[in-house]
Amino acid sequence: xxxxxxxxxxxxxxxxxxxxxxxxxxxxxxxxxxxxxxxxxxxxxxxxxxxxxxxxxxxxxxxxxxxxxxxxxxxxxxxxxxxxxxxxxxxxxxxxxxxxxxxxxxxxxxxxxxxxxxxxxxxxxxxxxxxxxxxxxxxxxxxxxxxxxxxxxxxxxxxxxxxxxxxxxxxxxxxxxxxxxxxxxxxxxxxxxxxxxxxxxxxxxxxxxxxxxxxxxxxxxxxxxxxxxxxxxxxxxxxxxxxxxxxxxxxxxxxxxxxxxxxxxxxxxxxxxxxxxxxxxxxxxxxxxxxxxxxxxxxxxxxxxxxxxxxxxxxxxxxxxxxxxxxxxxxxxxxxxxxxxxxxxxxxxxxxxxxxxxxxxxxxxxxx
Length: 368
Prior knowledge:
Blueprint: H1 3-11, E1 34-35, H2 47-56, H3 69-78, E2 86-89, H4 92-103, E3 109-114, H5 119-126, E4 130-135, H6 144-149, E5 157-161, H7 173-182, E6 186-190, E7 211-216, E8 229-232, H8 235-243, H9 252-263, H10 269-288, E9 292-293, E10 300-304, H11 311-320, E11 323-324, E12 336-340, H12 344-367
Parallel strand pairs: 1-11, 3-4, 3-5, 5-6, 6-7
Antiparallel strand pairs: 2-8, 7-8, 9-10, 10-12
Helix pairs in contact: 2-9, 3-9
């Protein structure tokens, strides 16, 4: 295609989409790396769940079940809800994108607690909407008055994550209920990491028609690559979201695994106990090494690095040692790294690498 033709094609994009650059191809991480940068759960599936996935492959020639009905029925039964209160998605990120499409027109605004899930910025841009990022404040408590009466008062809906990503902090459910009860707008509560936390707001769904709770099986049930997520809310809201989903939005393996996970949630108890134990162990070890670690209720830690270096420097040093961690491009978090909690050998390798980097850096500074 000539340059003139390419420019003609690109000029035909909508005004919103012209603001997005073409994404470059990203290299696949080396399999030898210790991958602690995307909050995955690295453990094997329980045998019964794995068997359901293998059995689903025998139905690969069939389209998936329409409207994910069996999966929605299983989720509803597991959490004492009705089937019409449940939407199943290709990960909770699909459900989140449907909320933006359903509720926002160009020029509208949506409010998000910040720092938060960066993907929301792109979703708002694609709808031609403004994303209002509301800070937690020094106390770390939910700023209910600001969300209700401050700059966010005209937002079509409010986004919360509990536990929050990237901080791992947890807000008491009573605070969330106070916001939901006092607001007449939709409150979208992302509970992706709730299985590592002390409480859940799912019980509030039957009390408040303006609450929509998102869940995913990527973090706590080790199926990030299979993509299973849910939204729980009032049937009128959920039904309208289901109406704009892609046809056959999930595959037969996702259906089968989702139903099996729901039937075998107890099989994950040891998995969750391990992650909580390793979270505490690694948090203490990092603190002893000079990091300042935010108390976490998720399967990751946000750690402020020792003075003199920033998060990007630490990320690069760790990557050279085949350890992948995340940095957070948010104001005030430039000196932080986010570390997923994995297996004991993975966390031992991470801590050993941190000690090596600290030792080498101290020696280098002493020699100057």
